[in-house]
Amino acid sequence: MSSVDTYINAATRDNTRRSYRSAIEHFESVWRGFLPATADSVARYLADYANTLSISTLRQRLAAIAQWHIDQGFPDPTKAPMIKKVLKGINALHPNKVGQAKPLALAQVEEIDQWLSIQIDIAKTNNNRVQELKSTRDRAIILLGFWRGFRSDELSRLEVQHISVVTGAGMSIYLPKTKTQPQGVTFGAPVLSRLCPVSAYQQWLTLAQLTHGPVFCSINRWGQLSNKAIIPTSYARLLRALFNAAGVIDASEYSSHSLRRGFATWANTSGWSIKSLMEYVGWKDIGSAMRYIDAQDPYGQNNIEQRLPPILALPTITPSVA
Asked: What are residue 187's DSSP bridge partners?
């Protein structure tokens, strides 16, 4: 690979490359489309999947097709006016509500943490190292993921050599690149009196004897740790299985984004300003932040009740005597 190709490759996130590759395979192998494509064939492709794929997925497929043509030096068929019209028509005839993961409440974090702590104690008593490893790792994922508001791709890119702990204060976490910070960014996580992400992280590192490489990795049935990180798409399945085992109601409605949304909602209801929350999580625009925050008064009940005028006392009417 040439130096130019190396830098171009580094500019594109791994999961983006995978999703683009999957989209191209779908266009060619499933739909039987030909590349390079024409605007007419791309429009027919969109129309054929208008009923089954969301508008956001269709846009992602278009982005992949566009990138393929750009990379191969062909004209981009997705820029044709008819493509824009077809998308507009699909959006009008097949509107869909943007789905959001259910936020994990702080009370639920505490319940899950207590359940995991019990599992760790049971594993120690039974000398079950595999269960002890998994429960200790999962506890660190929950507490660090919640209090730091990390997405699954951020959790998957945590490296031991990029994290340092200051006793009694907190931990410094450096990510070489993020979705919004291609140059890298450093996050901080605090030491807490309970539900502490720092102590949970240290307990996991000590038990797993990790000194380098990914913080969170898979564990096989013999208690052997993989040298590769848990991939982002696996976190939703891992967390749902954990929530279900811990007795969380409607565990299937949660995803890896539930940790981020849960923290954002908790911070908002706890009096954090939007500016402080954005700086802590790393959001660059308020629109991104507001998508993660559940309204404190979704039905407007509190706002309206506080402003209702008091009920006026009706005058007492004395019945006349005939």
From this structure: 173
